[in-house]
C-alpha cells in the first residue's frame, strides 16, 4: 500500500508520499484433510479430500507406502497390508503448512472365498487362492455325481486337490503340532492378516487315498498348515495309514470322514497383531512311487470368534453355566454348572440348534429353543459332577446362521429346569468373573439408605443389582433406600468377556 501524509501550518500545506510503503502478506494456509475408507482389505482404493483453509496453490501428499501425489483430491491404491501414516503439505502466497495423521490408514488381507463360491466350476482354483504346486486341482460343484459324502459343506462348491506332480513329497515335521512345513507337495494357499476380533480359523477337510503306502515313511498324505513365515503349525493331517470309513462317490477311492477343524490362531501365534500376515495352505503329497494319485477335499475356510455358553432362567436368578470345547472337534465338551441353589439335583443337558430367533432378551433369559430342533447330544450327570461329552468330528457351533442353544433339565429330560439366554460354544479362553459384595448398614429403621460395595473380581464390563424390593441398579457400588419395613434378599450379577457370575445374599437387609 502507498501511504501519504499531508500536514498544514501557517506557512501552508505539505505532502509526503511513500509508494508501496506498507506490505500486507497473505496469511499462511492451514493444512487439513480427510479420507474414506480408513480401513479395508488389500487392494484398497482410498479417496483423500483436501480440507485446507486459506489461499493454496500447491499440494504435496505422502501416503505412507512410498506413494505420493500433487493433486488436490487424490485417490490412492494400497496393495500391501499394514498401518500407514499420511501427510499433506500445502503451499500458498503466505507460506506452507503440514498436517500428519499417524497410523491413519489400516490395510489388511482378509481370508476371502473360503467356500470357493467365487471360483469357476471344473477349473483350477484361482485368486485369492494361489497354487503351491502340482496340477489336477479342480473346483467341484454341488450337482449330480459330483456331490461326495459331506462335500460341499457350505453352499455349492468345494476344492478337489490332486497329488499329481508331487512324487517323493515329505509330510510336515510334526503332524498336529508345530514343526516344519511339508515339501514337494501340491495344493493351494492364501495369505491373510490376523484378526484379533475373529481369531478362530475353521475349515473342513477329508483325504482320499489313491494308493497304499510304500513304507511307513513313504506314503501319500494330506496336510493343512498355517504359518507366519517363522512358526509353522499343522492343523490337519491324514495319510494312507488313516481310517477310511467312506468311499468317494466321485473317485471311488477310500475316504476319511469329513473333519471340522477349529484352530485358535491367537493361541498358536501369541504375539500376533492386526499387522501379522499368515498363510494357510491345503496340500496333498505323493510320498510313494508317484504312480497313483491321491486327493484331498477342503471347504468352508472362515474366521470366527471364540465361543461361550451362558444360561439363566426366566427370572434371571439361576447361576450362569459355562462350556468349552476342544480346539479340534473330536475331543470332549465340558459344562461347569453352579449347583449352589440345587445341590442334590441330577441334571440332563441337551444341545440343539435352531435358526433365526430375533429379539433375544439376554437380561431376562427367554425360552429360545424350538423343541422340534435337531438334538446334537445329551449329557446326564449327577449332582456336583461336571458334564463331559464326546463331540463328533462333524459337529460345529461356530459360523452358523442362527443360534446354537441348550436346555438344562432336572430329574428328567422333559422336566425343564432353566432356559438358555445365549449359547455359543467353541473356544473359551477368558476366565469368568467372580461375584461378591457387602452392604452397610444391613439393618435399621425405615427409611433406610444402604450403601452396596461391589467386591467382585475378574474382567467385568457390566453389573445388575436386584435390591429385593422391585428396584434394580447397574452402578458399580450403588446406594438404595428401603422405604417399607421387611426382610430383603439382594443379588448381584456381573458380566465380562468370560461370561456371567451371580451372588445371592438371602435376607440380607432387615428393616424392622
Rg, nearest Å: 33 Å
Q: What is the overall shape?
A: flat
Write down how many β-strands occur, each being a DSSP E stretch of 2 or more residues: 38
Strand content: over 45%
Polypeptide structure, described:
This protein is mainly beta and 512 residues long. It folds into 4 domains: 33-108, Immunoglobulin-like, CATH 2.60.40; 130-304, Jelly Rolls; 308-424, Immunoglobulin-like (Sandwich); 437-511, Immunoglobulin-like (Sandwich). Helices cover 1% and strands 45% of the residues. The protein has one helix spanning 265-268, and strands at 3-9, 12-18, 33-36, 39-41, 44-50, 58-62, 68-69, 75-78, 82-92, 95-108, 130-133, 138-141, 157-162, 186-193, 200-208, 221-227, 232-239, 246-247, 254-255, 259-264, 277-285, 295-304, 308-310, 321-324, 332-337, 347-354, 374-381, 387-390, 403-410, 416-418, 422-424, 437-440, 448-454, 462-466, 472-473, 479-482, 486-496, 499-511. The longest helix has 4 residues, at 265-268.
In short:
This protein is 1% helix and 45% strand.
Topology at a glance:
Blueprint: E1 3-9, E2 12-18, E3 33-36, E4 39-41, E5 44-50, E6 58-62, E7 68-69, E8 75-78, E9 82-92, E10 95-108, E11 130-133, E12 138-141, E13 157-162, E14 186-193, E15 200-208, E16 221-227, E17 232-239, E18 246-247, E19 254-255, E20 259-264, H1 265-268, E21 277-285, E22 295-304, E23 308-310, E24 321-324, E25 332-337, E26 347-354, E27 374-381, E28 387-390, E29 403-410, E30 416-418, E31 422-424, E32 437-440, E33 448-454, E34 462-466, E35 472-473, E36 479-482, E37 486-496, E38 499-511
Parallel strand pairs: 4-10
Antiparallel strand pairs: 1-2, 3-5, 5-8, 6-7, 6-9, 9-10, 11-14, 12-13, 13-22, 14-21, 15-20, 15-22, 16-17, 16-21, 18-19, 23-31, 24-25, 25-28, 26-27, 26-29, 29-30, 32-33, 33-36, 34-35, 34-37, 37-38
